[in-house]
Design goal:
Layout (H helix, E strand, L loop, with lengths): L1 H8 L6 E4 L7 H13 L3 E4 L5 H7 L12 H14 L1 H7 L3 H14 L4 H10 L6 H10 L4 H13 L3 H16 L6 H8 L1 E2 L4 E2 L7 H7 L4 E3 L4 E3 L2 H9 L9 H22 L12 H16 L18 H19 L2 H19 L5 H19 L2 H16 L8 H18 L2 H17 L7 H19 L2 H16 L8 H19 L2 H16 L8 H19 L2 H17 L7 H19 L2 H16 L8 H19 L2 H16 L8 H18 L6 H14 L5 H18 L5 H16 L6 H8 L5 H11 L3 H11 L2 H9 L4 H6 L1 H17 L11 H29 L24 E6 L4 E6 L7 E4 L5 H17 L21 H21 L14 E6 L12 E2 L6 E2 L5 E4 L3 H9 L11 E5 L11 H15 L4 E5 L5 H10 L2 E5 L1 E3 L9 E3 L4 E3 H4 L9 E5 L17 H8 L3 E5 L5 H17 L14 H16 L4 H7 L2 E5 L1
Parallel strand pairs: 1-2, 7-10, 10-13, 14-15, 14-16, 16-20, 20-21
Antiparallel strand pairs: 3-4, 5-6, 7-8, 8-9, 11-12, 17-18, 18-19, 21-22
Helix pairs in contact: 4-6, 4-7, 7-9, 14-15, 14-16, 15-16, 16-17, 16-18, 17-18, 18-19, 18-20, 19-20, 20-21, 20-22, 21-22, 22-23, 22-24, 23-24, 23-42, 24-25, 24-26, 25-26, 26-27, 26-28, 27-28, 28-29, 28-30, 29-30, 30-31, 30-32, 31-32, 32-33, 32-34, 33-34, 34-35, 35-37, 37-38, 41-42, 43-44, 46-50, ...
């Protein structure tokens, strides 16, 4: 104390010290303190009873002032007490001399001490007469100790029950751990120690309590206490026989008995609030364990049963209550010894109850909850396993038909907690099953329904994270949405429900990349924070979730304000988290991640340095063996690797490898993050291998990591795809001759189908496929280099036009399957039809009311169920002998090739260019290397073509119009492009196939050829390749009639399913839309459709012409089903961000690609799209053929005439006239009014040749006029 005093006063220039009651200190303390005070440069005031010995030895020169009560003060005190006491007032009333006598007697015998005077007055307050008053006064001693002794004798002379009350009051005042209010003391005294019971009817009024204590106790504003510390010291030294044994067991038992009654009252009360009589409950809950612990140290009492015999009926109940009280104190203090003792007490209670003495179900329930709580703080796996065993034992005791919902909920939660630690799929499955059962048993109006929905939703999200099963994620979102919908905004749980819903949206955003989900997540999390009070325990956690959502959106958009806010929010969360808090490492970890993301964007080394410090701190604060240590290490390892790549510091890459190795060691088998963690280790090993020039055996280890991650059967598909791409790329880079490359690409392309499954909308599937861009092209180039053209073809088909192939599978004829299993075929037909409809884009927008969003999510879940059923149906079909390849992409490629010409697949890869030719009757594909054409040439051709089109106003931003093509004197760029395609691609292919130049003037029929380009080649005019200047002009038009097909499978399906169109729908529907809002008019379309209609009428073809606003979009769709062919002359709109929204523009409304591709025209024949850009797809989906022409093929048309860029409104009329003129006179010769489009490729070839003759030139302007016309299909 002296040392502290010196430190406190040292910086002070002027010092005043006041010490009150110095005489109450121990003698050694007085000596030391007075010595020190005498040496201080201070003004000192001491108050004390006389202590001459000390003052003369230490401060002989100090000024002394004696303070004592004046006789007038004592007299005034006595007179005041008489006035307040009606009995004394009546005895002395009207007799001033008697009152003066009393005042004089008290004044003379109290020696100036108010405390003695007070006790004297208390001794005579109930006298009956004047003589009785002074007789009792004669017996009252004048010394303080004598006065206390006299008062105690008075107490003990009372009735036995009053003595017992006074004794218990003294016990509580001497041994309570906190001051007791009058109400608390009253309820404590009402507990019967003997009967172990509490009855509010036994509560004693406070004035009675004060009376039986004979003035030794008083009531202040907040507490009951002894009148003076000397009274407390005197009573402490006194001995009592009124209570059995030491005070600690008495006090502990009192608390336990009271708590038992309290818990029982709460369980039976209909009100959710505690009655006002529960005044003693807070003290009892807080200190019962401490009293019990003190009783354990008493030699005369057993540790827990203290004052109860082992066979006492109340023992298990009291032990159970003791355990629960210890648990409650643990929740306040965090002291693990409390929860350890809680479990010990409850285990003993359970053991006694197991013998048939007590409520075993209650004891098991309480023990299970405490075990689970200790697991959540320590991570000791045996605790949660024991909790599961305990809850199961409890549920087994409950009769059938009487489900214990809280127990089912707690058992489910225990499985969730164990799953969080181990990643065991059976645990989360069991949890979901139990939580679903709880939800089923919960009435719609039950107050716990929202929380139970949220619990189930969180478990479903966990299982999604393990398996990647989208249906779980959508079910999770739905459950969280319903919880939010039925919860009032001011409900205390609303912030938690909002935060959980936001977290589920985040998970879906990470899977789909749909920014609307990110916006929803952030919106929910902002609402949650707004509803959370400033000092709320969960505020930091909710800030953390918001920060991570903002950082994730930044990763997708690069929007800097998002990452700035994310960092600020994470910093706020860290600031609100006290040192030593178990969640501080997590919050530091997320802050470090956000800083790292900003560093990756800006390259600011300050962010990197701060991120390193924060992440290292997160790791250091996470105990070894903690289940989440791996999470902290992952980000630290990534930072080491990032810094190595920036600085080249060898120690950083070493740290990155060792850190990620530790992460993998800490990851249990089957953990959903196993693929991503193995992938990260592989990257670190590969980086070290490069930096060390092969000193380490890191290359093979990195390949092994990539392979293990790619081939595991669990974890998110995107993580596995990333690993498979690393695997293939690394083997290719270092072991280019290894056959393992083929295996790696096989695995990678197999995963692609998983990330773009039928359970998603078509637009979502296209979005997911961006991660797999060019993967099939990479794989095919490897297959070509190893002489496996067959494998190259399989991979190009498997990885190209995946969505179209899925759609074709849904529409495949099932006649052969019907002969084997009609019921299965019918079910496949029904599910395929439903899947087509479900695959349409669902309308969902940010401000949509929650009820409507829930409806959309319901549609999504039904879609997912259909996709799962489709997979099961395919398995069943493929199990039938002979149907092993049912609806597999490449199973019939060589069986249904067109007889009239080859299909040529062209693959332009960065390493090589190749073609594959498929000919009817051939046993295997023909590999045609294209060594003189390179990817650089292909890219140059595409970029140059774009430049030409933009300069000539023919690009994507232009539309069909009446103005001529913009002039560009002496430009020959398009001619150079076509010459390059001829020399490097088309002529070598024609030569390899033995094609010779035809003599069309003699009526020779040219063979057909179908081009199936991939990648960048999909945007180049292969059908027009040729030499258009100089003496030796020639082009592909001289050798063959060209068509395109998005995939080989799409064309072979058309060949396989070719049939005559039914007579009642055979015909031509024509419409033009010359005046759409906001675009230039195209009057030529009116002349065009009228001219064609006239030709059709002349030859008796069934035809219908509706111009402009005479047809609406819905009616157009009806006519497309009623007529086998359509001629559509209009403007179009290409939407790069969402290709499915590319559309034909009508005078009123539009017809988009998303709608077209979901049509299923059983009798579709020809679609002539006299519009601009109808075969122009998007480069990011180059292998998916996302354009209007392909959509028409998907809708059911067998052949389509389309355009690659803007066409002339005037010359489009000439092309259409020549096309139909040839088609209507060179068809199959029908005279029954039907329309036949099978010769459409020849008709277009003829029309283009006629246009070339009309232009009488092969200038660039002329080429730009006829080259855009293309033919798709059979």
């Amino acid at each position: 104390m002296v040392t502290v005093l010196r430190k406190v006063v040292q910086p002070l220039s002027k010092l005043f010290v006041v010490i009150d009651g110095l005489d109450e200190a121990a003698n050694d303390v007085k000596d030391e303190l007075l010595d020190e005070l005498g040496s201080l440069p201070a003004n000192i005031l001491l108050t004390s009873r006389p202590m001459d010995l000390f003052s003369m030895n230490h401060m002989p020169d100090a000024l002394r002032v004696t303070i004592e009560a004046h006789s007038e003060d004592i007299e005034a005190f006595v007179e005041g007490r008489v006035k307040k006491n009606s009995r004394l007032r009546s005895i002395l009333g009207g007799k001033p001399e008697l009152l003066q006598k009393l005042k004089t007697r008290i004044k003379d015998t109290s020696w100036g001490m108010f405390l003695v005077a007070r006790l004297q007055m208390d001794a005579v307050h109930n006298c009956r007469s004047v003589n009785d008053l002074f007789k009792k006064l004669d017996g009252v001693p004048s010394g303080l100790d004598d006065m206390y002794h006299h008062t105690l004798q008075r107490i003990l002379s009372q009735e036995e029950e009053d003595v017992g009350i006074a004794s218990r009051v003294f016990f509580w005042l001497l041994h309570a751990f906190a001051p007791l209010s009058p109400e608390e003391l009253q309820e404590a005294l009402a507990v019967s120690f003997e009967d172990r019971s509490f009855d509010p009817g036994d509560i004693v009024p406070i004035n009675v309590i004060l009376s039986v204590c004979c003035g030794l106790v008083e009531v202040t504003k907040t507490a009951v206490r002894f009148i003076h510390y000397t009274a407390q010291e005197y009573i402490k030294a006194a001995s009592f026989d009124a209570l059995p044994g030491p005070p600690s067991p008495f006090l502990a038992t009192t608390c336990l008995v009271y708590l038992t009654w309290h818990l029982t009252s709460l369980e039976t009360s209909e009100s959710s609030t505690e009655p006002e009589t529960f005044q003693f409950a807070p003290y009892a809950y807080k200190y019962v364990a401490k009293h019990a612990q003190e009783s354990q140290g008493d030699e005369n009492h057993d540790s827990l049963s203290f004052s109860l015999p082992e066979d006492h009926a109340s023992l298990p109940t009291l032990l159970g209550n003791l355990g629960r009280s210890l648990r409650q104190r643990f929740e306040q203090t965090g002291d693990l010894s409390d929860i350890d003792e809680s479990i010990s007490a409850q285990q003993k209670a359970m053991a006694i109850a197991s013998e048939g003495r007590g409520d075993l179900v209650t004891q098991l329930s309480s023990l299970g909850a405490t075990l689970l709580q200790r697991f959540e703080h320590t991570g000791i796996l045996s605790d949660v396993s024991e909790a599961i065993t305990t809850y199961r034992r409890m549920l087994a005791l409950i009769p059938d038909g009487q489900p214990d919902i809280p127990a089912l909920s707690n058992l489910g939660l225990s499985f969730v907690r164990r799953f969080d630690r181990t990643g065991n799929p059976s645990d989360i499955a069991e949890a979901i099953s139990l939580q679903a059962k709880v939800l089923e048993l919960t009435p719609d109006d039950h107050t716990d329904l929202p929380s139970r929905l949220t619990t189930l939703g969180s478990s479903l999200r966990r299982r999604y994270e393990l398996t990647g099963e989208l249906s779980d994620l959508y079910e999770s979102i739905s459950a969280h949405q319903k919880a939010v919908e039925i919860t009032p905004e001011d409900h205390p749980c609303m912030p938690s429900f909002l935060s959980d819903l936001g977290f589920a949206y985040v998970r879906r955003f990470k899977r789909t990349g749909e920014l609307l989900d990110s916006a929803e997540a952030i919106s929910m999390q902002r609402r949650a924070i707004k509803l959370t009070p400033g000092g709320h325990t969960y505020l930091p956690a909710r800030l953390n979730v918001l920060g991570s959502s903002l950082a994730l959106r930044f990763e997708h958009t690069g929007y800097l304000p998002d990452i700035a806010e994310a960092i600020a929010v994470h910093q706020w969360a860290v600031k609100l988290t006290p040192a030593g808090h178990s969640h501080l490492p997590y919050r530091l970890n997320f802050l470090g991640r956000a800083l790292a993301r900003r560093f990756e964007h800006s390259g600011d080394i300050v962010d990197m340095a701060e991120a390193m410090v924060v992440q290292q701190n997160a790791v250091d604060l996470t105990p070894q063996g903690h289940p989440d240590l791996a999470i902290m290490l992952i980000d630290l390892g990534d930072l080491f690797l990032d810094r190595f790549r920036q600085t080249g510091c060898q120690s950083d890459v070493e740290d990155a490898v060792s850190t990620h190795q530790k992460v993998v060691q800490l990851t249990p088998h089957g953990h959903p993050d196993y693929p991503s963690r193995m992938n990260a280790l592989g990257c670190a090993l590969l980086a070290r291998r490069v930096s060390c020039n092969g000193i380490h055996n890191d290359l093979d280890q990195s390949i092994a990591c990539f392979k293990a991650a790619a081939t595991c059967t669990f974890g998110p598909p995107h993580s596995r795809l990333s690993a498979a791409k690393y695997w293939a790329g690394t083997v290719l880079g270092y072991y280019p001759e290894s056959l393992e490359i083929m295996t790696a690409f096989d695995v990678a392309l197999g995963i692609v189908a998983l990330i773009a499954g039928l359970e998603q909308t078509v637009q979502d599937r296209y979005t997911q496929l961006q991660d797999a861009a060019d993967l099939a092209l990479d794989a095919a180039s490897i297959a070509f280099s190893q002489g496996r053209a067959d494998k190259a073809l399989d991979w190009l088909e498997e990885g190209g036009c995946l969505v179209w192939n899925q759609l074709n599978h849904l529409r495949s004829p099932l006649e052969i399957l019907r002969t084997q299993n009609a019921e299965l075929a019918q079910r496949i037909a029904e599910v395929s039809r439903k899947l087509e409809n479900a695959g349409r884009s669902r309308v969902l927008y940010f401000d949509m009311p929650l009820a409507e969003k829930i409806g959309v999510e319901e549609e999504t879940r039904n879609h997912l169920k259909l996709a799962r059923e489709w997979d099961e149906l395919l398995k069943m079909a493929r199990a039938i002998p002979g149907f092993e390849t049912f609806l597999k992409p490449s199973s019939v490629l060589l069986r249904h090739l067109p007889e009239s010409g080859p299909i040529v697949v062209i693959n332009a890869h960065r390493s090589r260019c190749d073609a594959i030719a498929l000919l009817a009757g051939a046993d295997e594909p023909i590999h045609i290397p294209l060594p003189n054409f390179t990817p650089d040439k292909a890219n140059w051709c595409l970029e140059t073509l774009r430049t030409v089109l933009k300069r000539r106003h023919l690009g994507p931003d232009s539309s069909r119009g009446i103005r001529p093509i913009a002039a560009a004197p002496k430009s020959h760029c398009l001619g150079i492009i076509l010459r390059g395609l001829w020399d490097g691609v088309v002529k070598p292919i024609l030569d390899a196939l033995g094609f010779s130049r035809g003599n069309q003037s003699s009526g020779e029929v040219l063979p057909r050829i179908w081009w199936c380009p991939t990648g960048v080649m999909s945007f180049l005019p292969i059908h027009a390749a040729g030499v258009y200047d100089g003496p030796n002009i020639e082009s592909v038009l001289d050798y063959a009639v060209s068509s395109y097909t998005p995939t080989v499978t799409m064309l072979t399906d058309l060949v396989r399913n070719s049939r005559h169109v039914e007579k009642d729908v055979s015909g031509l529907f024509l419409t033009n839309q010359p005046n759409p809002t906001g675009l230039p008019p195209i009057p030529g379309t009116t002349t065009e459709v009228r001219s064609i209609f006239t030709k059709a009428e002349e030859v008796g073809v069934r035809a219908l012409k509706l111009e402009g606003s005479a047809v609406t979009v819905p009616k157009c769709l009806e006519y497309m089903a009623d007529y086998s062919s359509i001629h559509l002359a209009c403007h179009t709109f290409q939407k790069a961000a969402d290709p499915l929204q590319s559309r034909f523009l009508f005078n009123e409304g539009f017809l988009d690609l998303g709608t077209i591709m979901h049509m299923n025209l059983k009798n579709g024949d020809l679609a002539f799209l006299s519009a601009c850009h109808t075969s122009t797809g998007q480069e990011k989906f180059s292998d998916e053929a996302v354009h209007l022409a392909a959509g028409m093929l998907a809708a059911g048309y067998h052949r389509v005439v389309a355009t690659m860029w803007v066409i002339s409104d005037e010359l489009a009329l000439d092309v259409a006239n020549d096309f139909y003129g040839h088609l209507l006179t060179h068809g199959t010769g029908r005279t029954d009014g039907t329309f036949d489009g099978s010769q459409s490729a020849y008709a277009l070839h003829h029309a283009i040749q006629q246009l070339r003759l009309h232009l009488d030139s092969d200038s660039e302007t002329a080429l730009l006029t006829w080259v855009p016309y293309v033919h798709f299909g059979y």
